[in-house]
Amino acid sequence: MGEKLGEKLGEKLGEKLGEKLGEKLGEKLGEKLGENQLEIIEKIINDPQISIVELSQRIGISTTAIENNIAKFKEKGILKRVGPAKGGHWEVDLELADTFNKT
Fold this sequence. Notes:
Elements (H helix, E strand, L loop, with lengths): L1 H12 L5 H11 L5 H12 L5 H8 L3 H13 L3 E4 L6 E4 L1 H9 L1
Antiparallel strand pairs: 1-2
């Protein structure tokens, strides 16, 4: 179910992940999201089991930068890790993600 949900969200959000995601998440974070932050969220939605190292390699920024951005998302309740570091998965606030489909 998680894989299908991630794929479905990825398809639904598609291009909307750009500007609208930045605006909505930016409001929740109290700042405008950068391109790297948008890519992090997009990649996590498309692959909830992605690791920090994989995110770093795919986006082209350091693992420290990924960790810092993830910490901001976690602090604001946008992202959480479920399960162990190995074998767990990420969850993006689906209620927040759903607002992108309505706007």
